[in-house]
Amino acid sequence: MKSKKIHDRYATIAMTILFIILAIMIILPIYALFIASFKPGGDLLQYGLNLNLNLERWSLDNYILLFAGKHEYWLWFLNSIILTVISVLSTLAVSAFVGYGFAAYSFKGQNVMFVIVLIILSIPLEVVMLPLYKQMSTWGLMDNYLSVILPFMANASTIFFFRQYLLGIPKSLLEAGRIDGATEYGIFFRLVVPIMKPAFAAMAILNGMSAWNNYLWPLLVIRSSSKYTLTLGLNTLINPYGDNYSLLIVGSFFSIIPIFILFVCFQKYFIEGMTAGAVKG
Amino acid sequence: MLKKFFYSQKIAPYVFILPFVITVLLFWVAPISNGVLLSFQDVLKDEWVGTKNYSRLLSDKNFFKAIFNSVKYMIGTLVLLIPFPMLFASLLNSKLMKRSGLFKSIYFLPALTSVVVAGTIFRLMFGEASSSLANQVIGLFGASPIKWLKGVNTSYFALLLIACWRWTGVNILYFLAGLQSIPTDLYEAASIDGASKWQQFKKISVPLIKPTTVYVLTISIYAGLSMFLESYMVFKGNNSPNNIGLTIVGYLYRQGIEKRAMGYACAVGLILLVVVMLINLVQLKITGTFDKEEK
Q1: What is the pLDDT of residue A281?
Q2: A19 vs B92: CB contact, 8 Å cut-off?
Q3: Which domain covers residue B186, as residue numbers?
Q4: How far is residue B104's CA from residue A260's CA, in Å, rounded to a whole number?
Q5: CATH number, domain at B64?
């Protein structure tokens, strides 16, 4: 018995060491970005990104540039916030509505429609991106946030998540609502929406994260730099003119912060939203 | 009368799923059918060219290079991002492991970064200067600096490293979610019967998390085959030396957006769509989704 205890203890130590090493490897790139944000942008160009502290070269110049310099960073930041908030709200509203339709009723054509949800769930956007892009330009929606928001409001993975979540609510609740004289839509808005809060939280975070980090589709449809999101704007800085690299590095580091704060506060929902698809009931 | 119709319990479900139906028609069915039509056209000259775009694809070396690169990348990610996260998740799930919550959070951090930020970090870490992090590391072993992003194998390594950095944590979470749905008494019974931890992992964990594995496998296949931005960021644009970083979607982007050969690019897109749909069918068949939904 005693030897087993010792054995277990060694196992714990060995595993902890393994995971600490892994954790260090995962944190290293972010740490490198962090220390680079205190060094002149030109150093990056010349020496690449590394872990050398070079404390004598440290200054707050990049941060001063970020907060007081002449550039469009905060405009991009604001655009990203606006676009993320609108995308998340519209996606949640529309997808919850649709998910409820799938979960609460049995209707003709339901299975076919649900298989379509599953199929769309697995088609990468890249496949339809070009014809969709052409369509947006025919409709005159180029350089318009509508083209970033509209196609993704009824989002297949969010619908799938809400449907799974709502399958769990007792049908008697809906019946009780009907007996009380609520309409079908009244039941959804007054009885169901309030109990969906945890599901909304998980999906808000998942969709918010992908909207904040979205790059490829906005790259195609957004043209003017005054409408750039943070990811689009940051990537215009990779050409090393003037202060670009200083702003790129400090701006990249700063762009992680809003999401990081959300992650620290709502970790549970991040993980729930992320793993929602993996264990299908 | 109309109001009564709209509020009836028979019609309501269709009202509920209407936004989805509209989305599917406008943003999936329309572009896909449009893509099919465009793939038989020369869009710039605005004329029908029959199957010329497709026959041109068959003799297009760069297209095959793009397919080769995408498939190679996908296989690399499958080999690295399924077994290791599965193993790590089992270890983290063990009772002997304390503070596993903290590790879980740390491993998830890279998934919060955008591909632009992640790509920029890795591009600079794999810089050509002898003082870039990658060259410093190999310098410890006495090797001289390498131009990482100019060689076939070294740039493949860099791309895979980005994928591992960003997705190991997420895949660990997936597998943990799967493992936590396995009843613990199975492991207790096995250890009473004298099964070693490794045997328990092989005989209990691996078979019982198969649904999770299939899920992770499928999303990894899609993500691998449609990879573009990682390469776009690392090579500072869509042009890599000798096209070592060219992927299927990169080729689609080059033809459709950069060279404005929309018809030709749509043919590339449709081939990718067909491949994805085939994988999809196989996956739905294996997991038995069709049977479940029909019951």
Answers
A1: 37
A2: yes
A3: 60-294
A4: 15
A5: 1.10.3720.10
Paired with B42 in beta bridges are: B47
Instruction: Compare CB distances from B131 to A48, A101, A252 and report the shortest one's residue.
Output: A48
Chain B CA closest to residue A210: B114
Q: Is-contact B87 A18, C-beta < 8 A?
A: no
Across chain A, how many H-helices and E-strands are there? Answer: 16, 0
- The yes-or-no verdict on residue B93 having pLDDT over 60 is yes
CA distance B255 to B260: 6
Inter-chain CB proximity B107 and A23 less than 8 Å:
yes
Residues in Cβ contact with B69 at an 8 Å cutoff, skipping those fewer than 6 apart? B243, B244, B245, B246, B247
> Nearest CA to CA, how far is B75 from chain A (Å)?
18
pLDDT of res. B294: 43
Give chain B's length: 295
Please report where in the chains the tokens 């041109």 appear, as a residue.
Answer: B56
DSSP designation for A191: I
Q: Which two tokens stand for residue A229?
A: 């999101």
CATH class of A71-236: mainly alpha
CA distances from A15 to A97, B85, B94, B100, B197 (A): 46, 14, 10, 10, 14
Alpha helices for chain B (secondary structure H): 2-7, 12-24, 30-38, 52-58, 61-81, 83-93, 100-108, 115-125, 133-140, 152-180, 184-192, 197-200, 206-208, 210-225, 229-234, 248-253, 262-287, 289-294
pLDDT in tens, A6-56: 888 898 999 999 999 999 999 999 999 999 999 998 888 888 898 888 888
**Domain residue spans of chain A:** 2-67, 71-236
CB contact under 8 A, A119 and B280: yes
pLDDT at B292: 52
CB nearest to A114's CB, from B23, B116, B293 = B293
Q: How confident is the model at residue B120 (pLDDT cuts 50, 70, 90)?
A: very high
**Number of domains chain B is built from:** 1
A and B: number of Cβ contacts within 8 A = 285
> pLDDT tens, B14-64?
999 999 999 999 999 999 999 999 999 998 888 899 899 999 999 999 999
Strands (E), chain A: none
